[in-house]
Amino acid sequence: MERFKGRWEKYRSLVEEGLDVFLPPETEYPQSLYRAMRYAVFSGGKRLRPVLTLSVADAFGTDPKVLLPQAVALELIHTFTLVHDDLPDIDNDDYRRGKPTVHKVFGNAIAILTGDALFAMAYKVAIAGSLPESVKLRILREINDALCYRGVIEGQVADIESLQKEPSYEDMLFIHTHKTGKLIEASVVVGAVGSQVSEDKVARMREYGRKIGLAFQIMDDILDAVGDEKEVGKRLRKDFNRASAVRILGLDGARRKMDELVSEAVEIVDGVLGRRGWFLKEMAEFIRDRTY
After folding, report:
1. How confident is the model at residue 239, as a pLDDT?
2. What angle (nearest 5°) sits at the alpha carbon of residue 102, between those of residues 52 and 221?
3. 130: pLDDT confidence band, cut at 50, 70 and 90?
4. In angstroms, what is the C-alpha Rg of the chain?
5. Which site in 2, 12, 111, 288 is 20 to 30 Å from 46, CA atoms measured?
6. Number of compact structural domains in the chain
7. 120-124, 213-217, 230-234, range with the lowest pLDDT
8. Phi first, then psi: what are they for 99, rounded to 5°?
9. What is the pLDDT of residue 292?
10. 26 close to 40: Cβ distance less than 8 angstroms
11. Which CATH number is 268's domain given?
């Protein structure tokens, strides 16, 4: 576990440096926008998605720094989704990562524009760096599909609409694999595509990403039901009227489903990467065992 934590911190440090380089300073006009963007981005967080991109590249023998712009772009997009998700008309959350949400600090209008700016900037960052232009174009398509073609936005809409009905298991799967899972899946795929590996390996790593993405959201549902609010850093006990895995499968059923997904994800990485995939295998186990 110490080796895993040390490697994560190595990747995380790279991401933090990249974010600082690509984001405009707070002193630029209009200062309110850039202050809000930096507040949103640098308010903590695991950096799971960019860490996945860098670690997949590393496992395939590619220098992680080569994919740093693309990893940063994924974190900017993830932050955009959080800023908008926290707004009063969606989840209406006052805290994120233990700190007041962007709209609570800067107001609703600036929060909306902050999310818009993070989203737009991500595309500029995603085409930076030394990757071949054809590879960058494919990465852009992957990111776009993860957002708005059977992706995050569709998942968010389905999540909102699930409040108006008794959600089914199929509703839960669609919401979880799209609202949360698609961007995690894309983060894995970007690392593989950026390493220019075979299509078969890209497809297998996509399956890994799908499984850990679903497992991640199921664990979020479990934490919402039984987690420690101070440790998680946001309001809990709020998803019982949504299409949560705990509501539909029960706590034990949700844990069994998550265990199944994690075991399958580890098996995939073992088949594709063997020992070189040790970090990705431990990542799947971290997702299952996390408390925040």
Report:
1. 62
2. 50
3. very high
4. 18
5. 111
6. 1
7. 230-234
8. -125, 155
9. 82
10. no
11. 1.10.600.10
* Separation of CA 15 from chain center: 14
Which range marks the domain in which residue 26 is found?
2-289
Please say whether the dihedral angle defined by the alpha carbons of residues 40, 44, 48 and 53, taken in this order, is positive or negative. Answer: positive
DSSP string, the chain: -HHHHHHHHHHHHHHHHHHHHHSPPTTSSSHHHHHHHHHHHTS----HHHHHHHHHHHHTT--GGGGHHHHHHHHHHHHHHHHHHTSTTTT--SEETTEE-HHHHH-HHHHHHHHHHHHHHHHHHHT-SSS-HHHHHHHHHHHHHHHHSSSHHHHHHHHHHHTTS---HHHHHHHIIIIIHHHHHHHHHHHHHHTT--HHHHHHHHHHHHHHHHHHHHHHHHHHHHS-HHHHTS--S--TTS--HHHHHHHHHHHHHHHHHHHHHHHHHHHHHGGGGHHHHHHHHHHHH---
Q: Look up residue 290 and give its amino acid.
A: R
